[in-house]
Amino acid sequence: MQGLTVGAAAFFGLLVGSFLNVVIWRVPRGQSVVRPPSHCPTCDARIAARDNVPVFSWLALRGRCRACRARISARYPFVEACTAALFAAMALRFGPHLSLVAYLYLGAVGLALALIDLDVRRLPNALTLPSYVVGAVLLAAVAAVDDAPFSVVRGLVGMAAMYCFYFALVVVKPGAMGWGDVKLSGVLGLYLGFLGWAELVVGAFAAFLLGGFVGIGLLLSGSGGRKTKIPFGPYMVVGALVAVFAGRPIAHWYLGLTFG
């Protein structure tokens, strides 16, 4: 049963990844993700169904448009493959349970937001704000099935705590991060708090740890300076995923290391 769930999640991830490519390109530009249908950005030719199969079509076409032979970015199959791998990992983590649906949504929207932030240094409200509603509904359904109402309360506390923490950072040190990061923090806090206090703390800390490592790397390599601005959304998302998959073991390891 587990293997079937993982395989189905990976296949579904390929399909979702193909859609995420559309979301990542169009949402920051204020375009519809439904119309017009997928087309080549160079010659505007509509992409046929046979050329729109995730990963495999890109490989078959050798990364070029069938109509004009313009290059197609390798990021398209990369996003599709990453989404499939992430969905498979989520299936391993949660198994055939309603919670899997909730965290598949987190993985999908998180991946889209991370890549959009890398591209345009912005986290669109069109993705972050609806995620509060979607996340709350999905997690409330999970809590109802499991008869665990405190999980929802803990998730709401986590949401408020993360939001207030990031809000304070923006107020105290303007320019250190954007308001999009503040809005995203509440969504991540909701999901991490639902899992547990350990996941919430680890996820919050991991984002700054990862961002700090990258910042140090930029300084040492000469690619950036102290005032170089880097998008923080990707670190928030990766930190949250680290907590989802390993938050409790990391917390136990750290407490054992600190207090013996």
Describe the protein in words.
Helices cover 72% and strands 0% of the residues. The protein is mostly helical and 260 residues long. The protein is globular and about 60 Å long. The model has no long low-confidence stretch (mean pLDDT 91).
Structural topology:
Elements: H1 2-26, H2 56-60, H3 75-94, H4 98-120, H5 125-146, H6 149-172, H7 179-195, H8 197-221, H9 233-259
Strand composition percent: under 5%
How large is the count of helical segments? 9
Can you give the helix content as a percent range? over 70%
Distance between the termini: 39 Å
Describe the sheet with the most strands: none
**Coarse structural class:** mainly alpha
SSE topology string: HHHHHHHHH
The overall strand count is: 0
Low-confidence stretches: none
Mean pLDDT: 91
| Morphology | globular
